[in-house]
Amino acid sequence: MNDLTEYVTLISSDDFSYVVLRSTACISPIIRRMLDPSNGFMEASTNTVHFDNINGIVLEKVCEYFYYNEKNKDAKDVADPEYASTLLIMVRKLISVSFPTELCLELLMAADYLDV
Amino acid sequence: MRAPKLATQRHSTVTMPAPSLQAVALRATMRNITNIYDIADMRYDLIKPALKKIKNPQQLREIETNSPAIADQTEELWRAFIARDIPGWKEKIFEPVNPRSWWKVHAKLMRAEKRTQEQQEKALELALGGLKQEREERKVSILEKVVPEDRKRTTKAPALRNAKSGNQVLAALRAQGRTEARHRRMDLGHLSRGAVAKISALPSAKEQIGSAPRWMVRDLMKPVLMAPPAPLFGKKTPVTAMVSRGGPSRQEIALRKAEQEAKLKRLTQARPQQQQQQGRAMVGTTVSPPPAAKSGEAMAEREARLKGLTHARPPQQGRAMVGMTVSPPPAAKSGEAMVEREARLKALTQGKARPAQVVEARPTPKSASPPVREHVVAKAIEIASPDPKPSPVLEATRKRLAPSPMMPLKRRKIM
């Protein structure tokens, strides 16, 4: 089973599953290690990672960030207006006022956990 | 991780590394730190930047209470608070025994600071208050109503001829009218308020007089002589007559006069003027020489007065009788006195004139006291009730008086 799927599934504590590109999920070193078959984790065989300490809403935000990050990684030229705008939107989305207070704390905790 | 910068902000084309999720989340947390009161089991270094944003030490204390894991490491935060809140903290700050009690240090220092502040405020208030008082004292306030002037002090209106302006003329006329009104009131017998008050304060005249004055009594005790009625105002005035001294004694003078009178009466007995004789006889019988020493002229005058009085009431013989009965003879009665009295009584009752006999048998001055007494009592009774025909002297004096008893004779201000 060396064939690595393109998408992986991230499951939150309250059983929300998010299917994301493997590349995006692997921005987080923790997830990459978990999904690496050489480490012998169970998640590698199933291509799903279960997070008991992260709830659905926070995990959604995390996935959003994964994508945002990957986009950022790809763009090397800031001058690209498209990217810049994309970046702004992404940042604004994440750091938007509608961000609930509890969420930011939990997000912080998740981010710390995932070392993202 | 550097914070992402907007593309528009930078001129150079430099790759902008995407902010980490931690950063993003942290930034969000920092923005919402006021709503955070519990961190649960988060690491201190994760939220330290966010905690640094706390403005209220109480919130920090709350977070510490809810998440005790943080409490051990909040020293620097508390130090920051102390430095911010307490002036001169470098000298005052002290390390607590327990590193968890940094919040206590802060609280203690805060209390001390508050106390000193209060003291300073009080001192300032006192200083300012004193200044305020001084300012209030020196303040000049405008009074809307001035103290009313004393009416009595108003300047007098000038006389009409001295008036220089129209107002003065009016004032002078008004003053004239006032004085005239006052005079008119006085004529009617009205008194000013002050005068009424003063007069009412005086003791009333009725209360004063209890008995006849002594001089009057003495005066009346001196008997009227038998001498013919001398003119009321002779050559010698009554005053000078009273003053004259020396010469024969008064008793001798009186005796002499009585003898003269008796002679005259004998001569005039034949005349048909019986009533007159009667009156005179009456006078002669009832009167005896006065015991006190006085000149003859004065006695004559008194005699005349008494005659005038007795003339008025020949029919009122009863009075004399009453007087006689009332008066007891104090002196030892000699035979002559008794005889004399009997004779007198007869004369009075019968209305016949027997003055000479009675008079010639003149008794001693002592025995004369009874008739004097009687006479005095008669006079006293007379005084009590006013006569219908007052003597001319009295009449003259009465006329001098003003129409009202309290009325001043001269128009002057009653103060």
TrEMBL record, chain B:
Superkingdom, taxonomy of origin: Eukaryota
InterPro entries associated with the record: Elongin-A_domain, RNA_pol_II_trans_fac_SIII_A
Gene Ontology terms: biological process: transcription elongation by RNA polymerase II
Region (Disordered): 267-294, 349-373, 385-415
GO cellular component assignments: elongin complex
PANTHER family the record matches: TRANSCRIPTION ELONGATION FACTOR B POLYPEPTIDE 3
Protein name: Elongin-A
Lineage: Eukaryota, Fungi, Dikarya, Ascomycota, Pezizomycotina
